[in-house]
Design a protein that fits this description.
The chain contains six helices and no strands. By secondary structure, the protein is mostly helical.
């Protein structure tokens, strides 16, 4: 059954990538493997004490890591659904993104495991805490800078993609949204060096600014989106024709 609303997002963006591609398939394999590494990073318990430590106390760190990777996968999925681009620049940017996701698995799991558990015997030097904060912040920033770069590359091809005024404006808002989220990772790196060595562990608190950024960005971009919608011809506010439904 043909469902027109299946090819149109709530904000009015028409979906061009409703068919699965080799990039989508390869990317899903990498995301799936990254989640597998999260599970395999915990050894199988042999006693109840180990079961309590690995399964019960490790459940929350795993859930947080899973939520983070799912949000990245969902952002990745929505990009390819929106634009359906497969040019060389997209392939290379996507490759850097997937590479970063793969190497980000263990630092992410390690950070949340010690944050929820006992970190008193984990570090032999306070400077190791600083290094961990930098690795975490840099990885976070790299992922969202790659997402911003994917959208910038799509915006660069706005004429070949026949983006409407609304879609062009939305693309710019998506870019700024990801840049703001990436900025919190860079701020974490900066705080790791700016804070006194005994307070470096407080650097990740800057990630709470993501909610502030998204609220402010949504408020500031709303007027531009409304104006772009008013300039968009009615036919460009309807879903694009597709022969097949998305998988």
């Amino acid at each position: 059954m043909h469902l027109p609303y299946g090819h149109l997002e709530k904000d009015g963006f028409r979906l061009r990538g409703t068919a699965s591609s080799r990039i989508d398939g390869f990317s899903d394999v990498v995301f799936g493997f990254a989640l597998t590494l999260l599970v395999l990073s915990s050894e199988v318990p042999h006693t109840y004490d180990q079961f309590h430590q690995v399964i019960l106390l490790g459940l929350l760190p795993f859930a947080i890591c899973f939520a983070i990777f799912f949000s990245v996968w969902h952002a990745h999925y929505r990009f390819f659904r929106r634009y359906g681009v497969h040019d060389n620049a997209t392939i290379w940017i996507n490759s850097v993104l997937l590479f970063t996701v793969m190497i980000y698995v263990y630092p992410l799991k390690f950070l949340f495991t010690i944050a929820i558990g006992d970190a008193s015997h984990v570090f032999s030097s306070p400077y190791q805490v600083r290094e961990l904060m930098v690795v975490y912040g840099a990885g976070w920033a790299a992922i969202y800078l790659c997402l911003a770069a994917l959208y910038w590359n799509a915006w660069r091809q706005r004429r070949p993609l026949d983006l409407s005024p609304l879609e062009t404006t939305l693309t710019v808002t998506y870019i700024w949204d990801f840049l703001g989220v990436a900025g919190t990772g860079l701020l974490c790196c900066l705080l790791a060096f700016a804070l006194p060595i005994d307070h470096v562990g407080h650097a990740p608190y800057c990630f709470f600014l993501i909610g502030v950024w998204k609220t402010a960005h949504g408020f500031l971009s709303r007027r531009a989106v409304r104006a772009a919608r008013a300039r968009t011809p009615p036919q460009d506010l309807e879903a694009l024709p597709h022969d097949t439904e998305p998988g």
